[in-house]
């Protein structure tokens, strides 16, 4: 059976669920251009918790440099999709 990398749509759904769980915001909606400034409760501590939860949910490891250079949800999504396919 051939392995299929995760699509952007499926990854965004899963990413949104992770954010909802960690931030305890069941109605949270993410867009590619969403940043921490756009989301109540997304502070530095929540950011660490989010990145750990994202790594667990997608079965990937992110470097400190990768995490530090993320500008928005779109960049995180692209990184998650790329890692999930490798």
Description:
- The structure is a single chain.
- The chain is an all-alpha fold.
- The chain has a single domain, classed as Non-ribosomal Peptide Synthetase Peptidyl Carrier Protein, Chain A, CATH 1.10.1200.10.
- 56% of the residues lie in helices and 0% in strands.
- It contains four helices and no strands.
- Helix 1 crosses helix 2 and helix 1 crosses helix 4.
- The chain starts with 7 loop residues before the first helix and ends with a helix.
- The relative contact order is 0.20.
- The mean pLDDT is 91.
Name the descriptors.
86 residues; Non-ribosomal Peptide Synthetase Peptidyl Carrier Protein, Chain A; 56% helix; 0% strand
CATH class label: Mainly Alpha
Would you identify the CATH architecture? Orthogonal Bundle
Count of helical regions: 4
Largest sheet: none
Give the rounded overall mean pLDDT: 91
Distance between the termini: 16 Å
> How many strand elements?
0
Note the beta-strand portion. under 5%
The oligomerization state is: single chain
The radius of gyration computed from the alpha-carbon positions, rounded to a whole number of angstroms, is 12 Å
List the helices and strands and how they pair.
Elements: H1 8-23, H2 44-58, H3 64-68, H4 73-84
Helix pairs in contact: 1-2, 1-4
């Amino acid at each position: 059976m051939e392995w299929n990398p995760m699509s952007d749509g499926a990854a965004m759904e899963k990413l949104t669920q992770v954010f909802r769980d960690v931030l305890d915001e069941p109605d949270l909606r993410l867009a590619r251009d969403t940043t921490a400034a756009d989301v109540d409760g997304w502070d530095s501590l929540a950011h660490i918790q989010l990145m750990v939860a994202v790594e667990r949910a997608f079965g990937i490891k992110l470097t400190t440099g990768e995490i530090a250079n993320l500008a928005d949800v779109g960049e995180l999504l692209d990184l998650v999709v790329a890692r999930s396919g490798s």
